[in-house]
Amino acid sequence: MRVELDEATRRRVEGIRMLGRAQVRPLGLEADRLGRPIPPDHEFFELLLKIGQGRTRWSGEQDPAAEPAARDESDRPELKATIGTSRALLAVAEELSYWDRGVAVSLPGPGLGEPPIIGMGTPDQKERFLRPFIDPGKPRWGSFAMTEPGAGSDVAAIRTVCRKDGDHWVLNGAKSFAANASRADWILVWATIDRNLGREGHRAFVIEQGTPGLGDFHVEKKMGLKAYESTSFTMRDCRVPADSLLGSDEHYARKAGFKGAMKSFNSTRPLVAAMAVGMGRAAFDEALAFAKEQDLLGDVRVRDRLERIRRRLRVARLLCWRAAWLADHSRPNIVEASMSKAVAPAVALEAASLGMELLGEVGARGEHLIEKLFRDVKAMDIVEGTGQIQRIVMARQLVQLPR
Amino acid sequence: MIDFEIGDELELVRATAREFADDHLRPTLRQHESTRALSDATRAAFRDIGFATLEWPESLGGSGLGGLARFIVLEELAAADPGATLALDPLGPALYALVECGGEAALERFGTPLADGETARSVLVWCGEGCRAKLEFGDDAVSGAIPWLPADAAAQLVLLDADGAHVVSEGFTLEPARGAGLRAAGAASVTLDRAPIAASYPGGEAAARAAARGRLYTAAMLVGIARESADYSRAYALDRVTFGKPIAHHQALAFLIADMATATDSARLAGWDAAWRLDSGHGAEEACATAFIEAAEQAMYVTPNGVQILGGHGFMQDHPVEKMMREARALSLLFGGVDAARNTAISELIESDGPVQLTWEAPDAGRTG
User: Fold this and answer.
1) pLDDT at residue B358, as a whole number
2) A-B interface: how many C-beta pairs under 8 angstroms?
3) Whole-model pTM above 0.90?
4) Same domain flag for A240 and A205
5) Section A11-22 average pLDDT
6) How many Cβ atoms sit within 10 Å of the Cβ of residue A212?
7) DSSP string, B82-129
8) What CA–CA distance (Å, rounded) separates A211 from B146?
9) Residues of A belonging to the active site
10) Most CB contacts within 10 A, which of A39, A177, B184, B347?
């Protein structure tokens, strides 16, 4: 039992803290004020590349046996032990989100499409789609598109269809809220060969930007998290080469297609929950500072609520870390991952909401960081499975809730 | 690095505690409650395993284990029978007042004679913030009244407040009370009439540590109670059929059951976090108070819902869930209850200039404003 970070992770977190204070938070506030995502050619993204960000965690090694090593290895020996573990990634994600979660999602890199490509992709696909991210000469993005206008949590209900046509596949459909889609080199798109087949009919494609039929990109207007683009787009008779189908046919014959997607969701639930913890911490720190400045701490009502928020944030973080620790040891963590995801966003919203209450009319002016966090954080209970979906997932395990 | 592995030794301790609870406590929990007594065999088994002296220093015949070990044992025992758990432990949280305020000498003097569990217990009396005891301290004696202690007899009372601990071994009488919960440990109101103070151990910091460890002791029991109530009602909900399916499969209950599991785990993690801080030499007063509040709140969320899931059956004493609800409520009144704990938990935050210390942030962490 140990509840502290190792030295290497602590140093990484401190690095992010410096970057966060100097760059990430100001950029997030600016994007919020301007009401538009950070442009892809922003110098901040160039800076990130220079300090080693925006890269794939794929090692470039084609031997699958060598792949797990990517989790635990680094070219910097002092970081070797823990860098890339789920726990370390959580600590980093939490800290980055403390400074601005919207900016965190905008960062260059292969994004949520990376795990399925590493897990299911053919050697050729890894070369094509991930190799450019090993040492990118410019900021590059990958994107991941599952959600549709009529299919959010119920991913089995996606309606984007794909049909084989000679040595091509033809896709038709619409996707919603895909992060970084309009600026991405490629988008990992989920489609179905037959809407009646449910999950068994799902197929993943990696569609490259500029492919004819891929278009109608529309950057949505959001309540918060404005620093990154949430983009909707369509595919109209979008023809892609047969080898754009992610993985080989055997993957789908084994019904692994859907599991490929769900696996990436499962591994990211504690990660997204940790982001919420970071946002909640930010709101708490600001609220506490304001309460001190305004001499509000003599009020026992204020003190009690601050106590509650701090305690619940700590518990949420412990839930996240436990789920990540289980993942690091390849132990089942379905219930634990969902617990963290069910708890953290609600706690973070409570933190921001309390912060607004302490600010009073100052918060209502709409110019305070806490007010932004209050809008930003609501998304965290929706992405990566809503709080309701988390409870369904838990109940399936705890009481065998039927599907 | 962050690690939730408790290790082989503590896994063994946990398994032993679970086995003891299944063999000696669970089958007779109603009997323990009504007779307010435990069998000699149960007491002997408890003593022989060494649970009573788990945290005692090895120099005094203890196992020298820490707060996490105690937490794990208490969760297992309290899951079966919280009242009996208190009844079996000859010192209970009084251990911490003796050790923290008076050192090993105090433990040897007042604790060792009780270690075999044959005689009455040493009972801790919280006299600090939030207590309802009315005591007047003279130079060498104390008088007053204590509304409730979970005991029918006491070899000694260890009076703990913010400034230190005092031990009284005579000059007090226990008047049996019905008890809202924890009846297996007994229930009494206490009158002290110029009770001579056998020993005084002043020291505010030591007293704060003693209170912290006492709160963690209580938190561990609350986690056990919450777990049992959640597990028991979950099993019932899978068995009970209404409207054509197990009630667990109605989404309103499925979600509730998931939330009860989450609540229990939340309280346990807060407790383990505090226990780790305690055992690794970090300041733990705030963490222990936080763990106590979390455990009390979650237990008071889980246990009434445990009754709710069983419906009318839950209200009847054929099932243990009503007992769990009463005992969670009674236990979380100790140490001044959650309000006193809140003040402890928040005080250092109010005094500090830095950002929120969840657990590991570097001191220079924080906001830009």
Assistant:
1) 54
2) 164
3) yes
4) yes
5) 94
6) 10
7) HHHHHHH-SSTTHHHHHHHHHHHHHIIIIIGGGTTS-SPEEEEEE-ST
8) 81
9) 384
10) B184
Q: What is the CATH number of the domain that holds A176?
A: 2.40.110.10
Last residue of a domain, one of A196, A227, A253: A253
Chain-chain contact of B266 with A85 (C-beta, under 8 angstroms):
no
Q: Residue B356 and residue A281: Cβ atoms within 8 Å? A: yes
Binary contact (B356, A9; C-beta < 8 A): no
Residue A220 included in any domain? yes
Host domain of residue B263: 206-353
Query: Do A89 and A150 have their domain in common?
Result: no
Contact with chain A for residue B13, Cβ under 8 A? no
CA dist B215 → B41, B279, B359 (Å): 29, 15, 19
Tell me the two tokens of residue A245: 């189908």
One-letter amino acid at B345 equals A
Q: Residue A286 maps to which CATH number?
A: 1.20.140.10
User: Which residues does chain B have with pLDDT short of 50?
Assistant: 359-369
Q: What pLDDT, in 10s, does the model give residues A273-292? A: 999 999 999 999 999 999 99
Domain endpoint, select from A111, A132, A160: A111
Q: Does the beta-carbon distance from A297 to B359 stay under 8 Å?
A: no
Contact B53, B64 (CB under 8 A): no
pLDDT in tens, B268-314: 999 999 999 999 998 899 999 999 999 999 999 999 999 999 999 99
CATH number of the CATH domain containing B265: 1.20.140.10
Please answer yes or no on whether B350 and A303 come within 8 Å at the CB atom. Answer: yes
Please indicate, yes or no, whether residues A99 and A171 belong to a single structural domain of this protein. Answer: no
Q: In chain A, positions 295-334, which contact chain B (CB-CB < 8 Å)?
A: 297, 303-304, 306-307, 310-311, 313-315, 317-319, 321-322, 324-326
Residue A290 at interface with chain B, using a CB cutoff of 8 Å: no
Q: What is the mean pLDDT of chain A?
A: 90
